Amino acid sequence: MLRTLCFLFFVVTYSSQAAIPAPVQERIPDASVVGEARFTYYFWDVYDAVLYAPQGKWPAERFALRLTYLRDFEGKEIAERSIKEMKSQGLDDDEKISSWLKAMNEIFPDINEDEHLLGVVGDSGEALFYQQDTLLGEVDDPEFTRWFFNIWVGEKTSEPDFRDKLINGE
User: Does domain 21-168 match CATH 3.50.70.10?
Assistant: First the structure.
C-alpha cells in the first residue's frame, strides 16, 4: 500500500511538472498555473492562454504567459496588434512605439495553428520570448515588459473578463 501511494505521488508530481514548459520551469521558481482562458474575437477562437507564477499565486513579479494559437498569424500581425493594445492602455511615446515594434517584428515569427508563443518575465524585468521551447529573443527593457504583459494582466486591459480568468484561476 505504501509503495502504491509513493508511486501515485511521484506520478502526480511528475505529471503536473511535465505540463509546465521547460523555460517556465527554468526561469520561474516553483512555477504553477495561476489561470487559463480562451480568447475569442467575435466568432473566432484566437488563442488559449495560460498564466504561470510562483506557487500559482498572483500578483507576481516574475511570471510567464503562454499563448497557444488556434489559427495562423503572421509575426508582423502579432507585433502590430500588441502595439495597438499598448496604445489603447495609454502608451503614447512615438520613439518607444517605433523601437518596440521593430524589436517585436524581429522576434515574433509567423505562427501556425496549435503552435505556442511563450513570454517570460526574467530576473531583471526583461521579456524573453519562446516558440515552443526555443528562445526567439528578448527585449531588455522593464518598461516594455510591463506594457507588453499588461495587454493581458493589466488593470486597463481591453479584455477584463479574460484577465479575471487568468489572474483568478476562474
Answer: yes
